[in-house]
Design goal:
Helix 1 runs antiparallel to helix 3. Strands 21, 22, 23, 24, 25, 26 and 27 form a 7-stranded antiparallel sheet that branches. The protein has a 6-stranded antiparallel β-barrel with strand order 1-2-3-6-5-4. Strands 7-8-9-12-11-10 form a 6-stranded antiparallel β-barrel. The chain has 4 domains: 56 residues; 239 residues, Thrombin, subunit H, CATH 2.40.10.120; 94 residues, Pdz3 Domain, CATH 2.30.42; 96 residues, Pdz3 Domain (Roll), CATH 2.30.42.10. A hairpin with a 4-residue loop joins strand 21 and strand 22. Helix content is 24%, strand content 30%. It contains 13 helices and 27 strands. By secondary structure, it is α+β, with helices and mostly antiparallel strands.
């Protein structure tokens, strides 16, 4: 972590002494760990002891190989100076939540699910009451973290910490408290900007360049896990560009500095004390920290917060398409050398893409001069393009490249209407025709099949009754899929499917591209031929 390794020749006496010192430090570290984790040893002695032996062995091996490497960025001896510098600008964010049922509700950002009457349940109940003693019995408290970004009193936090709340209260590390108003929020990136109601001189921190942070670099998270204000944890940047399926603009930093419920909205710093991420989520089977946390990169956050400060909301560009990823099978079926780009699954009538003659089945490989490597790239690039801007779109269609010119529109409000649920399947399986090359049993659409699989009236195609030889590592057909086109040719019977496959050149490519409707959504599947 933070080290650059290269091999050298025979170890020098100085390197040998360094190795000995490193071993001594390792042994001392082990002793310290055994003392601080005493309670954990009592509860799980075998597993923890074996883990320690593994860690100790690894550390000794590292100390031994110290003679053949050089260290370019050693671990800081202490983070105390950095913590002392930034903690004053990190705040606790509290907002009151009104319960529609008349009972107090507590934010999901706090784990108030201890057994009723247990010591922990009582402790957190008392803590909540101390934080907001004026709340009524029908109100709950949302607790999170935040940080001040300029002397004027602007505070960054997570949208989900304040979205459902009112009476927002900010508490600094020196115990000063201020009321805050919501300047703006962006649900799609889970960011919110607050303004403190004060003329006092306030501490603040600045954003750094998240693009300069490298995997393995040291980071420090500060926040209020479980309401424990001013908590500092240290780790490294574990990975970049994580997609956790929280929205179309996912591009998270993954860190192993411990963050828990209550850290949401708090900052992650680099070793220079600059904010390089806004903590927003954790991956955990239990709800507690397991060393996998996610932060919004500072370079993305800066753009969103600037828009919130200026307009109170974020305006994004809109292309008017639904897209999906390009699997290796889809790429092969369409004659692409590599599985990259974004496949157009739907085109909104009257939208910018429709006006530019972008069609369902096109693969978008570039937009406004930027390469679209995968399906995640396009939404971010389009969103950052101002409405009214003319942009060239690079497409792959019918085995060749072409360019379309599109005028980007303003993104409309997201559709909050829930999609209709698919009706339950019947118990009796209708007869169908097997397609060995597809590894599936197919049938012509009937009223009974429409009811069984929830297929809308007016949609034509061939229903998949069962799918054989399904490889979970690949795109494949599923029961209930409605196959509408085979390599661009419309089909309505199993016989037409076979005929379309024979004349499409799929045999030479080894894969066929199917346009299907799955759970009401048009999508594409590349199927390797049996």
């Amino acid at each position: 972590m933070g080290r650059s390794w290269r091999r050298r020749g025979s170890p020098s006496p100085l390197a040998t002494r360094a190795a000995a010192n490193s071993i001594e430090r390792t042994v001392e570290m082990q002793r310290s760990t055994e003392m601080t984790d005493l309670q954990a040893v009592r509860s799980t002695p075998r597993r923890l002891a074996s883990a320690r032996r593994a860690v100790t062995g690894a550390a000794l091996a590292l100390a031994f190989t110290w003679t053949t490497v050089s260290v370019s960025a050693p671990m800081p001896e202490s983070f105390s100076g950095l913590a002392e510098k930034v903690i004053p600008a990190v705040v606790m964010v509290t907002s009151t939540i009104r319960s529609e049922s008349g009972r107090a509700q507590d934010s999901a950002d706090m784990p108030f699910n201890f057994p009723k009457g247990s010591p922990f349940d009582e402790m957190f109940r008392q803590f909540r009451e101390r934080q907001r003693p004026d709340r009524s019995p029908a109100e709950g408290v949302s607790l999170g973290s935040g940080f001040i970004i300029d002397p004027a009193g602007y505070v960054v936090t997570s949208n989900h910490v304040v979205a459902e709340g009112r009476d927002i209260l900010i508490k600094l590390s020196d115990q000063r408290e201020y009321r805050a108003t919501l300047v703006g929020a962006d649900e799609q990136t889970d960011l919110a900007l607050l303004k403190l109601e004060t003329k006092d001189k306030l501490p603040y921190v600045e954003f750094g360049d998240s693009d300069q942070l490298k995997v393995g670099d040291w980071v420090m998270a500060v926040g209020n896990p479980f309401g424990l204000g001013g908590t500092v944890t240290v780790g490294v940047l574990s990975a970049r560009g994580r997609d956790i399926r929280s929205g179309p603009y996912d591009d998270f930093l993954q860190i192993d500095a411990s963050i828990n419920q209550g850290n949401s909205g708090g900052p992650t710093f680099n070793t220079q004390g600059k904010v390089i991420g806004v903590n927003t989520a954790i991956a955990s089977p239990s709800g507690g920290n397991v060393g996998i946390g996610f932060a919004i990169p500072s370079n993305q956050a800066k753009q969103i917060l600037a828009a919130l400060r200026q307009n109170g909301h974020v305006e994004r560009g809109w292309l008017g398409v639904s897209i999906q990823s390009v699997s290796p099978e889809i790429a092969r079926a369409m004659g692409l050398d590599k599985a990259n780009g974004a496949l157009v699954a739907q085109v909104v009538p009257g939208g910018p893409a429709a006006k530019a003659d972008i069609k369902v089945g096109d693969i978008i490989t570039g937009f406004a001069g930027e390469t679209v490597k995968d399906v995640r790239d396009l939404p971010r690039i389009v969103a950052s393009t101002a409405a009214g801007t003319a942009a060239n779109v690079e497409l792959w269609r019918d085995g060749g490249r072409r360019t379309a010119s599109v005028h980007i529109a303003k993104q409309p409000a997201p559709d909050k209407q829930a999609s209709a649920q698919r009706s339950d399947r019947g118990n009796d399986e209708p007869e169908g025709q097997s397609s060995k090359r597809l590894g599936a049993k197919l049938a012509t659409v009937t009223p009974e099949l429409r009811r069984q699989f929830g297929i809308k009236d007016g949609l034509a195609g061939v229903v998949v009754l069962s799918a054989e030889q399904i490889d979970p590592r690949r795109e494949h057909l599923r029961p209930g899929d409605l196959v509408q086109k085979v390599d661009g040719t419309a089909v309505s019977t199993p016989a037409e499917v076979d005929k379309a496959m024979e004349g499409s050149g799929a045999r030479s490519r080894g894969a066929v591209l199917l346009q299907i409707v799955r759970k009401g959504q048009t999508t594409f599947v590349g199927v390797p031929l049996a």
